[in-house]
């Protein structure tokens, strides 16, 4: 089940919210847990057992770590056991196919018989709930949160359906108090509805329309320079509106239930450095990598060269987290390299003024990274890069012109106009010393526009084929 579906909008969500508000405060966490398991099982019932087993395992490990004491040797042993099992589960389901395929290629080249492994199906959301479970037991070990004895609350935290499939990556220490005591007000519910509708519009109205353009351009065997840049720019916008749209819907659903989740995006395409980009893009993941991987590796505490190494390794492993493909590893290395370079030259990563040259260079580096991220393999990426930077034929190929519609072109223009407007608005709002060139849209006009576009998006959803969220595959 996905948020952008009629089943969710007109069956699951109304029934859940009705039962949720009719039940007493005491039973709402249990109801949330049951609903989340139904939501997950709608895809595959058999993987629900794995989901529950991971939850029980980390609940038990958390109790053992907590009983052993903060940062003690016994607690460390329990922590290492818990993390090792979590990573083994993630590694098997996410990387077994990739590992066996890589070994088989080497064995075939050596004239040996390949291994035979039944294809391992990737459970949706496994990267997110494994990372959240790991953060919990690490926080218990560090003393940042006590080990909870309330299994229902912990299981509901791991399973809570608004963020279950594609984040944001939540932490138990940030939500523990909300599970015990959260407020339910009409203002919060209204805010949640508006936020959900905004995300729904991003996904259905913009991302799904641009997906067709990006898919077609990346599938061309001989793209022109125009084809390649069109595909790269379409995917750059598609990914943002798809993923930030999901995050908006997750945050909105949380507000409807009284929860306030962390923000996951902050106008990343207005960034003027790669370091700033990662403060604005997928914030829950970037802060997770910083707090549980970069700091664990030593952070910036062990010398300059070690700092550069840690930055590079953190992003390399962040790329690998996205999937078992060499393209994700290269993408992670690309960002890790630029983070290290910016650190080495002492670049100001919190600029007070908007510099068009720095912004253009950063945006170019981000777009180049998205090309390898989107490509099925290195060959496709090389084909796209070759076309982009050959600067040969800027016109679209005949195949592209035949498939491109006026609606798709208009959507791409609207997407980048929206990015520019809201990006500059937020930049100048956060930097009061800069000239206020961009003003906010009046609240009533914004709400009216959201409501009309949401209604139009529902009509569009009913008329189109299903398009899954991009981050389901991660």
UniProtKB/TrEMBL annotation:
Keyword Acetylation in annotation: no
InterPro entries: Ac/AlaTfrase_AlgI/DltB, AlgI, MB_O-acyltransferase, MBOAT_fam
Protein source organism: Pseudomonas spelaei
Protein location: Cell inner membrane
Predominant location category: membrane
Membrane topology: Multi-pass membrane protein
Full protein name: Probable alginate O-acetylase
Cross-referenced Pfam families: MBOAT
Top-level taxonomy: Bacteria, Pseudomonadati, Pseudomonadota, Gammaproteobacteria, Pseudomonadales
Pathway noted in the entry: Glycan biosynthesis; alginate biosynthesis
MF GO annotations: acyltransferase activity
């Amino acid at each position: 089940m996905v948020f952008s579906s009629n089943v969710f909008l007109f069956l699951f969500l109304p029934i859940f919210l009705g039962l949720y508000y009719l039940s007493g405060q005491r039973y709402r966490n249990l109801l949330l847990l049951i609903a989340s398991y139904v939501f997950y099982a709608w895809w595959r019932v058999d993987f629900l057992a794995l989901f529950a087993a991971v939850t029980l395992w980390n609940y038990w490990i958390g109790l053992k770590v907590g009983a052993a004491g903060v940062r003690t040797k016994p607690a460390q042993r329990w922590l290492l056991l818990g993390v090792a099992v979590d990573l083994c589960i993630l590694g098997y389901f996410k990387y077994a196919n990739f590992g066996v395929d890589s070994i088989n290629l080497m064995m075939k080249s050596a004239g040996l018989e390949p291994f035979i492994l039944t294809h391992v199906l990737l459970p949706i959301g496994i990267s997110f709930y494994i990372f959240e479970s790991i953060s919990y037991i690490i926080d218990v070990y560090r003393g940042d949160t006590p080990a909870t004895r309330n299994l229902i609350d912990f299981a509901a935290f791991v399973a809570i359906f608004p963020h279950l499939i594609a984040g944001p990556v939540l932490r138990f220490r940030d939500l523990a108090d909300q599970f015990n005591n959260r407020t339910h007000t009409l203002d919060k519910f209204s805010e949640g509805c508006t936020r959900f509708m905004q995300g729904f519009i991003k996904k259905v109205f913009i991302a799904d329309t641009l997906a067709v353009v990006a898919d077609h351009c990346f599938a061309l065997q001989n793209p022109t320079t125009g084809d390649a840049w069109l595909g790269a720019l379409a995917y750059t916008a598609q990914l943002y509106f798809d993923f930030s749209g999901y995050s908006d819907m997750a945050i909105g659903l949380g507000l409807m239930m009284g929860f306030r989740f962390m923000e996951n995006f902050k106008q990343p395409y207005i960034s003027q450095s790669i370091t700033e980009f990662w403060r604005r893009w997928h914030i829950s993941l970037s802060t997770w990598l910083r707090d549980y991987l970069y700091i664990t590796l030593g952070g910036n505490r062990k010398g300059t060269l070690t700092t550069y190494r840690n930055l590079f390794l953190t992003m390399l492993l962040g790329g690998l987290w996205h999937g078992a493909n060499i393209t994700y590893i290269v993408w992670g290395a690309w960002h890790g390299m630029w983070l290290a370079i910016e650190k080495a030259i002492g670049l100001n990563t919190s600029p007070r003024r908007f510099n068009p040259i720095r912004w253009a260079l950063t945006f170019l580096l981000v777009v180049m990274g998205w090309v390898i991220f989107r490509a099925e393999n290195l060959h496709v990426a090389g084909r796209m890069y070759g076309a982009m930077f050959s600067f040969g034929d800027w016109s679209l190929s005949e195949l592209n012109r035949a498939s491109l519609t006026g609606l798709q072109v208009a959507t791409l223009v609207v997407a980048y106009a929206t990015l520019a407007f809201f990006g500059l608005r937020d930049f100048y709002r956060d930097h009061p010393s800069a000239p206020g060139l961009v003003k906010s849209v009046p609240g009533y006009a914004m709400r009216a526009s959201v409501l009309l576009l949401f209604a139009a998006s529902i009509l569009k959803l009913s008329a189109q084929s299903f398009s899954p969220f991009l981050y389901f595959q991660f």
